[in-house]
Amino acid sequence: MRVCKLGRADYLETWAAMRAFSQARQADTPDELWICEHPPVFTLGIAGRAQHVLQAGDIAVVRSDRGGQVTYHGPGQVVAYPLVDLRRLGLHVKEYVFQLERALLKTLEACGATGQRVVGAPGVYVNLADPLGHTALPRERAAENPWCGIGKIAAVGVKVSRHCAYHGVALNVHMDLSPFERIDACGYPGLRTVDLSTIGVAISCDRVAEQLGAHLTSFLSPR
């Protein structure tokens, strides 16, 4: 897998380039991994509901062709876009998402944090009461406040066309988190968004990008 470090890259331009790469690729086109950071932007998934954008303000809202609801991208967040042929990797879409989450979990572990999955809610979360420990999230959540004590630290959203995937994952490192208060993150009212600095991990985006890139490259190798 060829790893491309794009630096700070405009979201619309990056999306267009991913789409063009995926549409033009052939059976023998090598997979690529693009790692970048975006200027502030809200993105809605292809079936995303506009009512989850509570107050966009001066931040642009882009309706993308990825799956999922609304999220925010901005400085201090590591974004990774694997451009991969799932058939060549021997992965179905659900297995692919599992491997993306696995790479995020291992990256957080390398940073000293404990990420966790929530059934039915793609992405990676932390137990706000013990983000650096190993206390599991409750199996059953209260109906009146299902996100109590849970923070989302990484988002997953993908697009698959002709067995080829693009879009990917975003891991929050050291951000201005206030824009997340203007949306129902990932379509979940009441869900708090956190980053590594919020939970007590001081680390650079470059170091996190290295870890995430290494794990994605490892877990997305042909079987």
Secondary-structure blueprint:
Elements: E1 2-8, H1 11-24, E2 32-37, E3 41-44, E4 61-63, E5 70-73, E6 77-85, H2 86-89, H3 93-111, E7 116-118, E8 121-127, E9 150-161, E10 164-172, E11 192-193, H4 205-219
Parallel strand pairs: 1-2, 3-4, 9-11
Antiparallel strand pairs: 2-6, 3-5, 6-10, 7-8, 8-9, 9-10
Helix pairs in contact: 3-4
Give the tally of β-strands. 11
Radius of gyration, in Å, reads 16 Å
* Tally of helical runs: 4
- Average of pLDDT: 96
Give start-end ranges of low-pLDDT stretches.
Answer: none
Helix and strand pattern: EHEEEEEHHEEEEEH
Task: Provide an overview of this structure.
This protein is of the alpha/beta class. It is built from four helices and eleven strands; from the N terminus they run βαβββββααβββββα. A hairpin with a 2-residue loop joins β9 (150-161) and β10 (164-172). The chain is globular, with a radius of gyration of 16 Å.
Could you provide a short overview of the structure?
The chain has 223 residues and is an alpha/beta fold. It has helices at residues 11-24, 86-89, 93-111, 205-219, and strands at residues 2-8, 32-37, 41-44, 61-63, 70-73, 77-85, 116-118, 121-127, 150-161, 164-172, 192-193.
